[in-house]
Amino acid sequence: MRLTGCSYPARHEECATFHNLLLKARQLRNSPHLKHTGVTAAVTYVGVATSLLSAPLVARTLGADGRGMVASATAVITTLAVAAFLGLPRGMGLRFAQQDERSNSGLVVIGGLGVIAAVAAVLAAPHLSNDNPQTTALIRIASLVLVFAGYGRLGDEIAMIQGRYVLHNVIRSATLVLPSTVQILLFATGHLTVASAFAAMLAGQVLAIGMGAVTAVMDLRSASTAPTPWAFSIRHWSNTVIEALTGNLDVVLLAAWSHPAEVGVYAVSVTVANATGGLTQALNQTHYARFAAAVRRGERVSLKRASRTGLALSVTVGTVAAIGLWFAAEPVFGPDFAALPAIGALMIVARAIQDQWRLRVFHASATQKNGMVAPASVAGLVVLVSASALLHAEGMLDARMMAATMIAMGAFRVGLYGLLSRRKSAKIRARVGRAQRDPAVENEHPATAAKSQTEPGAR
């Protein structure tokens, strides 16, 4: 191909370099991963936009107390939906995506666990709501969705792992876009109450679970049967239980040990912070599919580049959001939310750290090397609970202190994960070195070198 303006030999190398860069730019533009990231980010930010539009309407109409009750009930159901299924949705989703296999017994177990979770939510509702009658009623009504939540999660896992981002984002939009849109319409028609606001949230959950369940049934019916992947699923479940508790326990603890108004302000700050993580979340989900594809091809899976990209995005978007929140919080949300700028800034930092953690969990799941996730998760949970209990005992637990506690917990968790991963990688390299020096050791451990290629934290 002739390069325009490159007829002089002295300029040929320079123009060829420019031409190569142009070709790479065109390839990047047509990259499916870039398109998938764009679609996921678009859905995320549509959800963020509707959430930000509805947040001041809900806050002004329900007040900090009403917003806190809705947030408390939602946190309880969300925690159970993630934690109740023994990790089977992700384990079975990976098994199907990589080997086209399903486990009939695993499907039965998922259904049984959904029923158990729903009954447990009904019985424990008074204790989880600090004996608040409205919150208790909301929890019991929402517990019905837990019966089918496992199947919905399984279908969503299959769609995400296989890179079917249109389907995955349609499911996501049911919980990200629909509830806030309905709440805006309720406000416009004068029907926005605590009950109707929570009903909008519940409708999104029902729709998302329904679409995920249909996806799971349609995909799995033609798959060959195989044993239930209990080993990976239980390891993943031990991690997700702790992660789910860590992700929602802040709201639960604040609801139990503080005033509902504090929960309301804290919930709005979480909404704002989540808005800053939309693009990073989209990238994390795209990286998850790429990690799984690399494992299928037997390639080395690297975390460092994905981590740096996500952190840069979080810092850039978070800085802009914190500045905007500082000037617009009280005029937009009302005088009850005067403390929102400081709390929101803290939660933006906590969200950036949380996105880094989720990337590491995705990486560990794709490589099926979850050994370092559990210790770091447990340590983070201990930090969160112990710090919150200490602050409560001293009479200092409020929304601001809970946000600071989330930063400390997140930083400790990510740092400990990195430390444990590096130590394990160093031990593997030491064993490889000994095997190379001593043939007897090499014969005794023939898979050591191969294992190091996909070990988390190896790079």
Automatic annotation (TrEMBL):
Annotated Polar residues bias: 450-459
Record's keyword terms, sorted: Cell membrane, Membrane, Transmembrane, Transmembrane helix
Span list, region Disordered: 430-459
Membrane topology per record: Multi-pass membrane protein
Keyword Transmembrane helix: yes
Annotated Basic and acidic residues bias: 435-445
Main location (coarse class): membrane
Domain of life: Bacteria
Classification via InterPro entries: Poly_Biosynth_Transport
Signal peptide positions on this chain: none
GO cellular component assignments: plasma membrane
Cell compartments where the protein resides: Cell membrane
Parts of the chain that traverse the membrane: 36-57, 69-86, 107-125, 137-154, 166-188, 194-217, 310-329, 335-353, 373-393, 399-420
PANTHER family named in the record: O-ANTIGEN TRANSPORTER-RELATED, PST FAMILY PREDICTED COLANIC ACID TRANSPORTER
Protein name: Membrane protein involved in the export of O-antigen and teichoic acid
Originating organism: Demequina mangrovi
